[in-house]
């Protein structure tokens, strides 16, 4: 495993970070989820990312149980707040002071820890003044319940505004967690330049495009049984944007590049996002321990410039690059 600094802070995290979205507490049994976490620890992953909304808080509980007994100082545990949790009442959502203060306490209890290393705004709350949100985050840090703060899927302008307030309040906003992959590059033109300017790193989710970049989905064929594209609990909806024959055919053209580098398609996709020097970590999930052992082999891989060019040529115009997509795919109002 290799480690990278998160933003301009002194915090180092594993460049392959284990995330439990769409798995723990929902798609896989708790015993299997725990085995995946143990596999992550065995291969040197020290950073774990979750959120209160994952499986409506169950994912945090599963992760807390799986990490029980580990030396806390050797781990970096991240969680998030914004989406509805619990019974989804009128204040069980968003980035109000009330919801943030109640949510951090719930997350710490479920994770069985006194603090999280990074507490992230899971989306931008259009219905709460940013000043209120950042003051609440600053108070969470001052209370010792979080060491650093971050955001997820914020635009460049939102990131600049939040960072300015965090600086005024004397806390460190050091991370952004966007979707990023060979197929989804919407952060490159605006979010990444703003982040470099501010001393913020990316912790990217879905580096294999919900599994599309593994190459297992073939043009003209039905998705494999049990794959994310057949998961009616949420996976199929997330992956549908990439499930057309043009995209799938172009992804198949990446196989020779992976073969020449001695990598699987998934390893190539993960290594690709890590070539961006503003990316501190690639988030990987797993439904079985073997996936962890395979995906972690992308750590430390350097893809030659010639191969990076071939990847661009193979994918061509199916790549989404429009910077406006960060705002367009964000909630315009609270979901409840």
The secondary-structure class comes to alpha/beta
Strand content range: 5-15%
Largest sheet: 8 strands, parallel, barrel
Gyration radius over CA: 19 Å
As laid out across the biggest beta sheet, the strand order is 3-4-5-6-7-8-9-10
Helix content: 25-40%
The number of helical runs is 13
Q: Would you report the number of β strands?
A: 10
CATH superfamily: NADP-dependent oxidoreductase domain
Q: From N to C, what is the helix and strand string?
A: EEEHEHEHEHEHEHEHHHHEHHH
CATH architecture classification? Alpha-Beta Barrel
- Uncertain stretches: none
Text of the CATH class = Alpha Beta
Average pLDDT taken over every residue? 93
CATH domain topology: TIM Barrel
Domains (count): 1
**Terminus-to-terminus distance:** 41 Å
Shape, please?
Answer: globular
Key structural traits:
TIM Barrel, alpha/beta, two-stranded antiparallel sheet, globular, single chain, 10 strands, 37% helix, 336 residues
Description:
The protein has 336 residues and is of the alpha/beta class. It has a single domain (3-328), classed as NADP-dependent oxidoreductase domain (TIM Barrel, Alpha-Beta Barrel). Helices cover 37% and strands 13% of the residues. The protein contains 13 helices and 10 strands. An 8-stranded parallel beta barrel has the order 3-4-5-6-7-8-9-10, surrounded by 4 helices. A two-stranded antiparallel ribbon has the order 1-2. Strand 6, helix 4 (130-142) and strand 7 form a beta-alpha-beta unit. The longest helix is centred in the first third of the chain and has 15 residues, at 97-111. The chain is globular, with a radius of gyration of 19 Å. The model has no long low-confidence stretch (mean pLDDT 93).
